[in-house]
Amino acid sequence: MKNLSAAVNRVLYVLSLVMFITMFSITTINVFTRYLFNSPIPWAVELGRYCFVSVIFLGAIYVMRENGHIGLDIFIGMLPRKLNKIIIFFGRIVSLIFLSVFTVQAVRMTVMNFNVQAAGMGIPMAIPYSFMIIGGTGMIIELVLNMIFPNRGKKDSDPTEHNVL
Prior knowledge:
The chain is mostly helical. It has one domain (2-148). It is built from five helices and no strands. It has helices spanning 2-37, 44-65, 73-76, 81-112, 126-148. 19% of the residues are buried.
């Protein structure tokens, strides 16, 4: 299980890094061509936007693994430990429902837009939309794993220290 987790971490890291470098590079090149040569790259803004979205959804998977999403832990931390765990579990169930609906709708939107072409790049819109499916599915998997194995993740952390609500 640790090898699979390490491999997934590596893939997320490499994909996020490639998308970030691509976004940064194409945006920088586009700025120079626009201002120095008065000739912007027509598809650069679109590619930068798609890369930005992909970094967000890939990063969200990693953040879900680490229980790092925004939570109301100041209030939950004041509650007794048993009630604290119940509220955290309930919050994870609500998150799971939301992510399930989000992912199903992302699949529907991706399928509906499979034949729609992006204005600048001419690629099927299903390609950038697919990152919502990847992100939603990855967050669901990480959320379920965090519910099954509440002590996974950082070694010396309290499972109630970072809440997903």
